[in-house]
Amino acid sequence: MNRRKILQRILAGSRNVPFSDMLLLAGGFGFRLSRIRGSHPIPVHPDVPELVNFQEVGGEAKPYQIRQFLKLVERHRLELED
Fold first, then answer.
1. In the chain, how many H helices and how many E strands?
2. Is 36 or 73 the better-scoring residue by pLDDT?
3. Other residues' Cβ atoms within 10 Å of the Cβ of residue 44
4. Dihedral (C-alpha) 53, 36, 48, 60: value to the nearest 10 degrees?
5. What are the structural domain ranges in the chain?
6. Any residues with CB less than 8 A from the CB of 43 and at least 6 apart, and which?
7. Which of 12, 32, 50, 56 fits as disulfide partner to 19, beta carbons 3.0 to 4.6 Å?
8. 3-75 is a CATH 3.30.920.30 domain
9. The dihedral of CA 9, 14, 18, 23: what is its sign?
10. What's this model's pTM, rounded to 2 decimal places?
11. What does the alpha-carbon distance between residue 51 and residue 64 come to, in Å, rounded to a whole number?
12. Tell me: the pLDDT tens digits for 50-75?
């Protein structure tokens, strides 16, 4: 799925976000998987000192982690790459 469409769907209030879409979206903002700790992939960004983690539950990303990620993107003014 297109990264912009994923972002639009999340911003429209969708709470059911496939885990693979969340990882794709994070990649679109310049995050790369650094490591996986158990079931938690840890994406990192060269300009963001905070760590983010995502946990898959039933094939979907947890809503609170999606909100945390979007706040981090906004705080650091990250741009979505095509």
1. 3, 4
2. 73
3. 16
4. -30
5. 3-75
6. 23, 26, 27, 31, 32, 33, 34, 52, 53, 54
7. 56
8. yes
9. positive
10. 0.89
11. 15
12. 988 888 899 999 999 999 999 999 99
